[in-house]
Write a structure and sequence with these properties.
Helix 5 packs across helix 8 (about 155-175), helix 6 packs antiparallel against helix 8 and helix 8 packs antiparallel against helix 9. It is globular, with a radius of gyration of 21 Å. It is built from eleven helices and eight strands. It is mainly alpha-helical and about 220 residues long. The longest helix is centred in the last third of the chain and has 19 residues, at about 155-175. Helix content is about 50%, strand content about 10%. The protein has helices spanning about 1-5, 25-35, 55-60, 70-80, 100-115, 120-130, 135-145, 155-175, 185-190, 195-205, 210-215, and strands at about 10-15, 40, 45-50, 80, 85, 90-95, 150, 155. The protein folds into two domains: about 1-90, no CATH class; about 100-215, no CATH class.
């Protein structure tokens, strides 16, 4: 998390604007319009360095041989790497990348339970949505370091996690597709107060005897 937060802060992390009251699709598009790009397609159909130009600057003619076309607009959408982002047809939650198979299913089920249910969304906003931008950023940093043990300005992350997991289970049961079974790893982690990384470290020291090769082979 520490490496990713400092890889390209201009296009990663939390999209502060998204938490403002009244934030809408037009404002999201305006954000993308001004965001510096990494690469674009030129008029010959060749992939080239964008030299830090945004769609706005390309539109103003600041990048020779490059124009606004469907490919460059699509690439602009794909070059925003915030923790949550809009893609054509869906919302992508990026903070669950790179998990073990059981956590991939659990994470997807958790977010379905939260995002597809109005009561669960309201609960999530009441728990976390009113934090200031600075507090939200600091909480994000601290949870990446202390996980469920994090306490921040009276907020206990483990208790928040318990409420949200419970809400997700409840809404998935309402959907009636038996999807709540996929939440079992999250339910167990919250009960134990451990995140996936801590469980790996625990296995590394207790079962693997500190052997990195055994850890990499998945035998711990």
């Amino acid at each position: 998390a520490e490496v990713w937060r400092n890889t390209d802060p201009g296009r990663t992390g939390l999209l502060k604007e998204a938490f403002r009251m009244g934030f809408n699709f037009d404002q999201y598009a305006a954000y993308l319009w001004k965001m510096p790009l990494m690469f674009v397609e030129n008029e010959k159909g060749t992939y080239v360095n964008a030299q830090g130009c945004s769609l706005e600057k390309i539109h103003q003619g600041e990048l020779s041989g490059v124009s606004i076309n469907p490919t460059n607009m699509r690439w602009a959408v794909q070059q925003l790497f915030t923790e949550g982002r809009l893609k054509p047809g869906y919302v992508e939650v990026r903070s669950i990348d790179g998990q073990l198979p059981e956590y991939r299913l659990a994470s997807a089920a958790f977010w379905v339970g939260i995002l597809y249910d109005s009561e669960a969304r309201k609960l999530a906003f009441n728990l976390l949505g009113t934090l200031s931008a600075a507090d939200r950023e600091q909480l994000w940093v601290e949870t990446s370091q202390r996980a469920l043990k994090t306490e921040f300005k009276g907020l206990k992350v483990r208790e928040v996690a318990e409420e949200l997991v419970h809400a997700s289970v409840k809404s998935l049961k309402k959907r009636g597709k038996n999807e709540e079974v996929y939440l079992a790893p999250l339910v167990e982690n919250v009960r134990a107060g451990l995140c996936p990384a801590e469980k790996i470290l625990e296995s590394f020291s207790t079962k693997g005897g500190g052997n990195v090769l055994e850890l990499l082979k998945g035998e711990v």
